[in-house]
Amino acid sequence: MADAEFEEIKRMQQERNAMKSKSKAFDPSTQRTDNTTKAALTETFDTTLYDRANGDKFAGYNTSIPANDDGDDDVDMDGGDGTRRLVGQYTASKEIMSEFANAGDDDMDLMSAKAKGGQIADRETDYQKRRFQRQLTPTRKDAFASDGAEGEGRSYREVMLEKELEREEERVRRRIEEKLKNGDGESDDAEHEATLKDEEADMENRDGATDGTRKRKKRWDVGVDDNTVVVKEEDTSKKRSSRWDVAAAPDATPVVKRSRWDQAPSLSAATPVGNQGLVTPIHPTVNATPVPSLPITFGHGDRNAPLSDEELDEMLPKEGYKILEPPPGYAPIRTPARKLMSTPAPMASSSGIGGFMMQEPENARILGKQMPTDIPGVGDLQFFKAEDMVYFGKLVDGGDENSMTVEELKERKIMRLLLKVKNGTPPMRKTALRQLTDNARQFGAGPLFNQILPLLMEKTLEDQERHLLVKVIDRILYKLDDLVRPYVHKILVVIEPLLIDQDYYARVEGREIISNLSKAAGLAHMISTMRPDIDHVDEYVRNTTARAFAVVASALGIPALLPFLRAVCRSKKSWQARHTGVKIVQQIPILMGCAILPHLKGLVDCIGPNLEDEQAKVRTVTSLAIAALAEAASPYGIESFDTILNPLWTGAKKQRGKGLAGFLKAVGYIIPLMDEEYANYYTSEVMEILLREFQSPDEEMKKVVLKVISQCAGTEGVTAGYLKENVLPEFFKAFWVRRMALDKRNYRQVVETTVDLGQKVGCGEIIERVVDHLKDESEPYRKMTLESVEKVIASLGAADIGERLEERLVDGVLFAFQEQTMEDVVMLNGFGTVVNALGTRCKPYLPQIVSTILWRLNNKSSAVRQQSADLISRIAVVMKQCGEDALMGKLGVVLYEYLGEEYPEVLGSILGALRSIVTVVGINSMQPPIKDLLPRLTPILRNRHEKVQENTIDLVGRIADRGAEFVSAREWMRICFELLDMLKAHKKGIRRAANNTFGKQSIHIHARFIAKAIGPQDVLATLLNNLRVQERQSRVCTAVAIGIVAETCAPFTVLPALMNEYRVPELNVQNGVLKSLSFLFEYIGEMAKDYVYAVTPLLEDALIDRDQVHRQTAASVVKHVALGVVGLGCEDAMMHLLNLLYPNMFETSPHVIDRIIEAIDAIRMAIGPGLVMNYVWAGLFHPARKVRTPYWRLYNNAYVQSADCLVPFYPNLDEDKLQRNDLMIVL
Amino acid sequence: MADKLRATQQLEQLQARYVGTGHADTTKLYQPLFPPHRIPKDTYASYIGHPPLLEYMSVATGEPMAKMRTRFIEKMIQPVGKPPEKED
């Protein structure tokens, strides 16, 4: 297409778009005006090497970024519209208006800071937080202990009784709440009754301090309880059940009105005198439990006179004590003022215990940052949180370890190890974990779990800590085995919440622990432990228990659990039990997938009767469970569902609302299992219900309906005609509305269902119906449409699309693409897919598309530019197919101009686009020519951004591969050194990515082209120098490079210099040489046979070196040499090397021994198993296990790798049966 | 610990897959699945698996190859006799 023509189209398009004033797509204000980043073709780009033709382009400009940039293009705001107003207009000042627009450094996003904290509790939902309400229950008896000793703890019976009581309490509480709600008249009676009852209980209970004072309530200085009791009784009448909770939770009684009589006389002064003893005086109101709990006789008032000797004799015991003389020089204080200060009045401390107390170490928590990170006996920790002090405080109290009992010492030891695991550095963690595991049985289950489990219940626990602690549990479970039984419930309380964590890995971890736990404790014990929780009053507990049970089932096998499940699902006592039972059955297929198939019948029969349960909740969960079972079983197992089809079907007809949703879901999942005929019948039946429910406002129902529709559409028996006639019109009317696009989940479901329907009715039908929505004014709706279109076309192709439809489609897609305000990958994919599917049919639209792209490539927003560049890479192939080479050349030139892009993401995309253009048009016809393009890429290679690097390398690689001759050798040289540099990235991640994705490739280009261009000598000198650098990374890369150079330019050009380098008496260099040799022999393969005898002396030296790493690397050289020369007649050298290798058999370091064994295996390949096995037979039954172990490893390798070759070489054993007489046959 | 654990697991896996492999605790006492009592079985399998060898033997003994093969297969059933009675 001629340029003039293109310009014409572009102009017309812009004019037309300008007419549509509402559209912002071609608003010139979105375009970049400064083109400083653009570079002209005629100018040299790389200023480090070439001078710019016209000097500094930026001379005279202010090159620094202005500090107070408003970034506000709304210029009109400042001066208004220029007209004068008679009335002043008042508005907020500009600072305030833009307060949130340009957030300063100090303006942190508190929420995001919080989110980064990583505390598990922060991201939990209220439901998940209910785990904190659970308590670590007391230990249980081990009823299944092998030795019959049950140990201490509660028995199953006791636990069940307690649960019974709990349920009863809950029931009564509910009743009372109900009654209170119903009206005051009724509640009066209840209240009266309750008080009486409480009074009785009170009589029995009196043993506390308050009771003691009550007896003496006639005394003037008490005057306490009468009032409180009255007040309290009023209080109880409001909240009956809380009465006895009061003592336990002091904050529950704050509103008790305190009369002056409540307070002990001497302490009731306005200034809290009694608080002298403490650093901060506590305000009297802080103490919810008021001071009267003081023993009255020790009040200040009583101490106004000294006790006489007689009184003391009366008070104190006589025998076994003696009266001491006051020390010489003691004079009692006589000044009353000082006396008052000296003995602080006993205070009610927060713990409720009277008397003066030493300050507890917990005060140290307030100091925040001053938390110690160096705990005695633990070492330097990574961190130490304030909360840790509660658990690990004992470690810092500096107690004398010599005076402690064994138990205490053990406790401290565990504590220290746990702290190391939880807060320590990785190496500390590793050793501590190992110690904990190894000594688990010595420590015992009790002491271990008593410390670990409370830590896991801590509210401020973070992911990492939880992961580590869970790991500890996992490890010690293995060791403890059946010793864990008494602690199973405790562990479950802590681990069950993991099963409903949002984090996938947490869920997996939880499952693993529970499955290990069930293997350790055994099925019977697991059932007896979890049985009481099945009808627990709290739904949360039941839910998590159900999930845990499902894990147990998957660990121990479904058949083992089935009888129990059957019993639970038929429970007559409580519907909760049935509900949980069904829920377990629901969770099993979710967890195990198609592994349920063998037991499908049993599972379905187990829950079948619950479909007609009297409780609606049970019915619903049963239908969901059946849906889950059918989903997991798909496409098999319809015969297992035969029994429940009828109840399910009648249920689906009878139910309404939420119940119906479950039933529909179950039907929807069962239909795909049926054979054609039945599926057809049931679909038409269920469709009536579905069509009715299309109108349902319930979100849940909508989702289910969509799911069922897509499943019905997928089944064999349902025809396209039927769908077109009966379903499509209703479906599009009900679900293709703007509102559906707003909710993420609905959105996805609608798209999915549409695509599924499309599979049956064809692409054209669907596109025809939705194409107009591409021009809708709601953006999410356009997105939803484009996504559906993309998915439909991607799976069905565009052959079905007529000419007129095609026009509308492309127009719509272009519109949607231009009008997007949020650049979304959906739009990009949609555009790409449509263009690619249409192929050559796109030709008429390409100029328009390209002009859109060009326009957007110059957009101010980087996201828009990036997207347009990405789009070029997607449609390049189609452009070539359409023969639009001129257009591509134009794009190429424009892209070239944009190579000065600052945003790395965009630059990466631009490079990607260039690459795809180069790929399709070919090196020779590339515009701009390669000799201009490549020099511009060289400086970009220095860019450290991953995406940029990857795309540049790929582009350079492509050019090097096909058009190396376009560029001078000197330029290639420069590029190669840039590439080598690139492997020194600072971040390990980038480096690794560099190595994985393009490291090798870049070095390939490097080695190959330097070598070809300038001969190996120069390169080798550089590379060998590189071996001497300190960085390991670059040494490794150099070693690889040397290997490649050797491969390309024949080894004899490299080997002498390399071996000469080995004479440098420096470990690093020698290692580098060995490493290079290893790569070299790996790459040259069979060529090695000519060099074996040359390198053998060097290897000899390396294999008997003192340094382990030396021998390790030498072994890997031997391995590659040996594998290279298999069958090439170098057996003598290999044998020699084997003799040198063999003494290394007993190395223990995993890396070393692995290399050694590999080398021996490789030599076995080279010289045949017979010879090597002669070495091995000797040690297989050696008396020392240390010797046997590596020998068996060798034997196993030989047996696995070449069992058949071993047969002739088996030793002749004396034993009669082992004689192999057949081998003696001679012809 | 982790290494050891992994090593054990790997060994277990190996032995599940290849019955002839052993470990440091493999003894010379009778263990039908472990070497050296695996030797006869492997040997017979090797005879059968290499037709030239089988042919050589049949020529030498004057028996047809098919018969030889059947004999070797039958010999593979408990080649070293019945396992000893378990002690406990």
UniProtKB/TrEMBL annotation, chain A:
Residues 1012-1090 form the Phosphatase PP2A regulatory subunit A/Splicing factor 3B subunit 1-like HEAT repeat domain. It is found in: Nucleus. GO terms for molecular function: mRNA binding. One of its GO terms (biological process) is spliceosomal complex assembly. Its main location: nucleus. The keyword Cell inner membrane does not apply. Residues 12-39, 56-81, 114-155, 178-217 are annotated as: Disordered. Residues 69-79 have a biased composition (Acidic residues). Pfam families: PPP2R1A-like_HEAT (PF22646), SF3b1 (PF08920). Residues 192-213 have a biased composition (Basic and acidic residues). Transmembrane segments: none annotated. Keywords: mRNA processing, mRNA splicing, Nucleus, Repeat, Spliceosome. Residues 236-363 form the Splicing factor 3B subunit domain. Residues 28-39 have a biased composition (Polar residues). Belongs to the SF3B1 family. This is Uncharacterized protein. It comes from Tuber aestivum.
From TrEMBL, chain B:
GO terms for biological process: mRNA splicing, via spliceosome. It comes from the Eukaryota. One of its GO terms (cellular component) is U2 snRNP. InterPro entries: SF3b5/RDS3-10, Splicing_factor_3B_subunit_5. Signal peptide: none annotated. Belongs to the SF3B5 family. PANTHER family: SPLICING FACTOR 3B SUBUNIT 5 (PTHR20978:SF0). This is Splicing factor subunit. It comes from Tuber aestivum (summer truffle).
